[in-house]
Design a protein that fits this description.
mainly alpha
C-alpha cells in the first residue's frame, strides 16, 4: 500500500488551532526572555521592570511561560500517535517513523547551531525516539510511563542529579557575554557565542527532558481516547468544566509569577488551555472563531523556524541589533506584528500550496518521495474569508 501525508480535508481543526495558538505563546516567550535579553537572565535575581513593562512581563510569565511549550510537547505526542495509526497497515511503519524523527533531528541541529540555540526541535526528536516504543504498548503501560516521567520532572529538584545546574557565577558570565556580543557582533561572532553557550543550554534541556517525554505520552493517550473526535463531541461540557477547573487550579499552584516553573503549574494550565480549545472546537461557533489559527498551526514548523530567523535579524548585531534595548511592551507589540503577519502569510500560502515549505520537505524526506505541493487550479493567490 502507498502511504502519503494526510490530506488537508482530513485534518482535525482542534489540533491545528491548538498548534497555532501555542505558536503565539512560543513566539511571545522566546522574544521576551530569550531574544530580547539573554536566555540565562531568567535565572538571575533582578529588579522587576517598572510600569507597564513589568505588567506585561508578569502576565507572560504567569499565563504563557512554559505553558506554550507544554502544549507543543503534548501536540507532538498527538502527532506521533496519528502517524502511527495512519501507517498501521504498512510493513515499513517503524522505518518511516524513525526516518521522520531523524529528519526532525537534522533540522533541529541545523536550527540549533546556525540559527538559534534555543531550539526545541532537537529535544523533540530525541524524546520522540524514547516515546516511539510506547506507541506499540497498551494504554495502561503508556499511562504508567507518563506518570513516572512527569512525577520525576516535578520531584527532580529534590532528587540527586548527574548534571549540575550552572552556578550563579557561570550564569552571570553568560549574561554579560551575551550583552556584549549579541547586539553588536557579526553573524560569525554571534554563531561563535551561540556555540559557546550550548553546554549550559543543553543542561537546561536535561532538566525538562522527562517532562517532554511525559507530555508526548499524554498526547498519545489523548489521541487513543479520541479526545479530538467523537469522545470530545459527546463530552464537550465535561471537557469545558475540566478546562476551567484546570486553569483555576494551575493558577492557584503558582500564586507568584516568578516561582520556579519546574513545578506542576505550567502542565496543569496547559491542560486547561487545551481542554477549552477542544471543547470550543466541538461547536459550530467555536470552530468558526478558532479557524483563523488553523493555517498557522498547519504551517507550525515553517512558522517556528521563520520566527527564529526574523527575531535573530531584529535583535542581533548582523541585523538591527536591538538586543537589550527593547522593553516588554515594545516586545509584545512586535510579537503581535510578527504573528499577524504569519496568520496572513499562512492563509495565502495554503490557499495555493498543500503544505508549508518545511512541512513539505519533512514529508518528502520521510516518505522518500515528493508529495503534491501546488494545489490544482491555484494560480490566483486568494484566501478564503
Amino acid at each position: 500500500m502507498t502511504h502519503a501525508p494526510i490530506a488537508a480535508a482530513r485534518r482535525i481543526g482542534a489540533i491545528d488551532a491548538l498548534r497555532g495558538l501555542a505558536l503565539f505563546g512560543v513566539l511571545a516567550i522566546n522574544l521576551e526572555s530569550e531574544f530580547r535579553v539573554s536566555i540565562f537572565r531568567q535565572f538571575q535575581t533582578v529588579t522587576p521592570d517598572p510600569g507597564w513593562n513589568g505588567v506585561v512581563n508578569t502576565a507572560l510569565m504567569l499565563f504563557v511561560e512554559m505553558k506554550a511549550f507544554a502544549l507543543f510537547s503534548f501536540l507532538f505526542g498527538v502527532g506521533l500517535a496519528i502517524q502511527f495509526d495512519r501507517l498501521a497497515t504498512s510493513p515499513r511503519r517503524t522505518i518511516l517513523l524513525v526516518r521522520r524523527l531523524l529528519v526532525l533531528l537534522l533540522f533541529g541541529l541545523i536550527h540549533l547551531v546556525l540559527i538559534w540555540n534555543g531550539d526545541i526541535l532537537t529535544e523533540y526528536a530525541l524524546a520522540g525516539f524514547v516515546a516511539l516504543p510506547f506507541l506499540f504498548a497498551p494504554s495502561w503501560i503508556v499511562a504508567v510511563a507518563a506518570t513516572i516521567a512527569l512525577a520525576f520532572y516535578v520531584l527532580q529538584p529534590m532528587l540527586p542529579s548527574a548534571i549540575s545546574f550552572p552556578s550563579d557565577y557561570a550564569i552571570y558570565t553568560l549574561v554579560q557575554s551575551a550583552n556584549q556580543i549579541y547586539p553588536t557582533g557579526s553573524f560569525l561572532d554571534v554563531l561563535r557565542h551561540r556555540v559557546q553557550e550550548l553546554p549550559a543550554i543543553l543542561t537546561l534541556h536535561y532538566f525538562v527532558f522527562s517532562r517532554t517525554i511525559g507530555l508526548f505520552l499524554v498526547g498519545i493517550l489523548c489521541w487513543r481516547a479520541d479526545l479530538f473526535g467523537a469522545t470530545a463531541q459527546r463530552h464537550r461540557t465535561l471537557i469545558l468544566i475540566v478546562g476551567v477547573a484546570a486553569i483555576a487550579f494551575g493558577l492557584a499552584l503558582a500564586p507568584r509569577p516568578h516561582d520556579d516553573p519546574g513545578l506542576g503549574s505550567p502542565i496543569v494550565l496547559a491542560a486547561g488551555y487545551a481542554a477549552l480549545v477542544i471543547a470550543a472546537e466541538q461547536t459550530a461557533m467555536g470552530a468558526r472563531w478558532l479557524r483563523w489559527a488553523e493555517p498557522v498551526g498547519r504551517m507550525a514548523f515553517t512558522n517556528y523556524i521563520m520566527q527564529s530567523v526574523v527575531l535573530g535579524f531584529i535583535f542581533y548585531g548582523y541585523g538591527f541589533g536591538l538586543f537589550g534595548r527593547l522593553g516588554s511592551v515594545a516586545g509584545l507589540c512586535l510579537v503581535l506584528i510578527i504573528y499577524v503577519a504569519q496568520i496572513v502569510i499562512s492563509r495565502l500560502w495554503l490557499a495555493r500550496f498543500t503544505h508549508g515549505p518545511i512541512e513539505w520537505l519533512w514529508r518528502a524526506l520521510m516518505y522518500g518521495r515528493a508529495p503534491t505541493f501546488r494545489k490544482a487550479g491555484s494560480h490566483p493567490v486568494t484566501a478564503r474569508p
